[in-house]
């Protein structure tokens, strides 16, 4: 190691440096020392800045890092996909699952309002309606969401005179729920039961993914 040997030689900055104790060496060693000192400080400064950025991002994670894939819309921590291909309730549900979600479960008045507002965007005519994940196919009049949880009776948005147990295709039962506008239906009254085999558009839902990666990009 050069620093421990009594003599060493360098021609840096065009002057000769023969030993520790050589007067000429002092400025060079000081210079190198100062450079190292400032370099360490600058590194530390950027490291701190980077950590601060990460901290700010994690505080704001829900605002900045929640993501849905292409074709999904982010709202309130969940992703929604409006499927305009008409199919039976079961087939629609399978499509949602294939995309990593399930037929939508409506857990709040706010969610109902959001969905109802977005539907007009995908509604071509008055009859256009969308499957939601609600069914009483297991037991008549016991309404369950696709995940098996019961319908909260103080959080229902049935249209007037619904559920009426009337199918549109002559089927005996009307066990699945579709949502949409019909006549003067308003957003708090927009659920209709009908036969599960009657082809409808549908709404899928999945939880949004939290993308930690935005931390790296600020
Ligand atoms: C983000 O949202 C989830 C649920 O929506 C919540 O549990 C979590 O505490 C939130 N995180 C922050 C940092 O706000
Ligand atoms: C839907 O699927 C379930 C189970 O996968 C089945 O029990 C039910 O009969 C199906 N319903 C219709 C209408 O095909
Ligand atoms: C759907 O809504 C978006 C904005 O929310 C709008 O830009 C778009 O044109 C709408 N699409 C249709 C088919 O109405
Ligand atoms: C049912 O919905 C009401 C109104 O949003 C809510 O206050 C209540 O906690 C819910 N009950 C259950 C069991 O989730
Ligand atoms: C719905 O219709 C089916 C078939 O006609 C019948 O078995 C069932 O009892 C009806 N449910 C209600 C709540 O009226
Ligand atoms: Ca939901």
UniProtKB/TrEMBL annotation:
<dbReference type="Pfam" id="PF00059">
    <property type="entry name" value="Lectin_C"/>
</dbReference>
<feature type="domain" description="C-type lectin">
    <location>
        <begin position="75"/>
        <end position="205"/>
    </location>
</feature>
<keyword id="KW-0472">Membrane</keyword>
<dbReference type="GO" id="GO:0030246">
    <property type="term" value="F:carbohydrate binding"/>
</dbReference>
<keyword id="KW-1133">Transmembrane helix</keyword>
<dbReference type="InterPro" id="IPR033989">
    <property type="entry name" value="CD209-like_CTLD"/>
</dbReference>
<dbReference type="InterPro" id="IPR016187">
    <property type="entry name" value="CTDL_fold"/>
</dbReference>
<dbReference type="InterPro" id="IPR001304">
    <property type="entry name" value="C-type_lectin-like"/>
</dbReference>
<dbReference type="InterPro" id="IPR016186">
    <property type="entry name" value="C-type_lectin-like/link_sf"/>
</dbReference>
<keyword id="KW-0812">Transmembrane</keyword>
<protein>
    <recommendedName>
        <fullName>C-type lectin domain-containing protein</fullName>
    </recommendedName>
</protein>
<dbReference type="InterPro" id="IPR050111">
    <property type="entry name" value="C-type_lectin/snaclec_domain"/>
</dbReference>
<keyword id="KW-0430">Lectin</keyword>
<feature type="transmembrane region" description="Helical">
    <location>
        <begin position="25"/>
        <end position="47"/>
    </location>
</feature>
